[in-house]
């Protein structure tokens, strides 16, 4: 009796157990309203973007309609901050779309858009690890925009420990302190380190998966039967034509090649004629 036959067979699941499993499986649809809520949030960000764009247009229009003593003056720093604010809104919207599409595809249900010309490139290989890395990179980009806005707004910070208005220039009038800017830089560096760690973990998991796949796909080759060796025809000594041993060997080899499909029938007949002509 083998070891496999001695093991007791597994008992099939009862109807109750299967029902509980199906209920747990279908509970993933509870996340669908969450992604619909994120779509509503994206609509709100579209409205925010249009409002910010309108403010930026009003700033430029005011510079044209109310020229100063030196003519039309448009503060480049304010325009740059406005554009950075628009980019910030766009990057947050991109983060939302990645969470909506990638999260729904990964945790809820497949989106059947294979072959669609507008299918995002990253959606073809999305999984939980890839989604986390992309989200981390998006957060780093958003943090970079906020940090750049801070660097542009702050012209000259006061020395550490002094009052908040000493030696400080702010374009928008907001108050910035030395400690506040330092903490922004530290938080941004934490985001970068976290993104690098997630990417490194994803690379290690992919390398482990690629290393295990070839080992599992190795299939042992079945032993091949030994090739049949036919004796070469020898002269009979009766005065009839005899076939040379070398020609017989060539004919046998050509026959095997023809049977294997390496040599076509026409090529076999041509070489056969040449060999028979040498007899």
Protein architecture, described:
- It is found in: Cell membrane.
- It is a multi-pass membrane protein.
- It holds the Pfam family UPF0114.
- The protein has helices spanning 3-6, 15-26, 32-65, 76-107, 128-153, 178-216, 245-260, 265-277.
- With 279 residues, it is mostly helical.
- Among the domains are: 24-65 and 73-111 and 122-157 and 169-207, no CATH class; 245-277.
Q: Indicate the percent of residues in helices.
A: 55-70%
Major sheet description:
none
- Could you name the ranges where pLDDT drops below 50 across 5 or more consecutive residues? 225-244
**Beta strands, count:** 0
Order of helices and strands: HHHHHHHH
Structural class: mainly alpha
Q: Report, as a whole number of angstroms, the end-to-end distance.
A: 63 Å
């Amino acid at each position: 009796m083998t070891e496999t036959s001695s093991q007791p067979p597994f008992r099939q699941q009862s109807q109750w157990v299967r029902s509980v499993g199906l209920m747990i499986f279908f509970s993933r649809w509870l996340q669908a309203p969450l992604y619909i809520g994120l779509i509503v949030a994206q609509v709100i960000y579209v409205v925010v973007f249009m409002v910010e764009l309108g403010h930026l247009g009003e700033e430029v229009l005011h510079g044209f309609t109310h020229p100063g003593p030196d003519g039309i003056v448009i503060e480049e720093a304010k325009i740059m901050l406005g554009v950075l604010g628009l980019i910030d809104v766009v990057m947050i919207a991109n983060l939302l779309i990645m969470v909506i599409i990638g999260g729904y595809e990964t945790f809820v249900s497949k989106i059947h858009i294979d072959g669609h010309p507008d299918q995002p490139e990253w959606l073809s290989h999305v999984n939980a690890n890839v989604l986390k890395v992309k989200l981390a990179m998006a957060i780093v980009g958003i943090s970079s925009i906020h940090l750049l806005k801070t660097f542009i707004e702050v012209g000259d910070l006061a020395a550490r420990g002094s009052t908040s208005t000493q030696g400080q220039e702010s374009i928008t009038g907001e108050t910035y302190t030395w400690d506040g800017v330092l903490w922004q830089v530290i938080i941004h560096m934490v985001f970068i380190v976290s993104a690098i760690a997630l990417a490194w973990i994803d690379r290690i998991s992919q390398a482990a998966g690629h290393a295990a796949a070839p080992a599992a796909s190795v299939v042992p080759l079945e032993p091949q039967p030994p090739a049949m060796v036919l004796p070469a025809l020898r002269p009979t000594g009766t005065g009839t034509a005899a076939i040379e041993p070398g020609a017989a060997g060539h004919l046998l080899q050509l026959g095997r090649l023809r049977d294997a499909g390496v040599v076509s029938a026409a090529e076999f007949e041509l070489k056969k004629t040449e060999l028979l002509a040498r007899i």
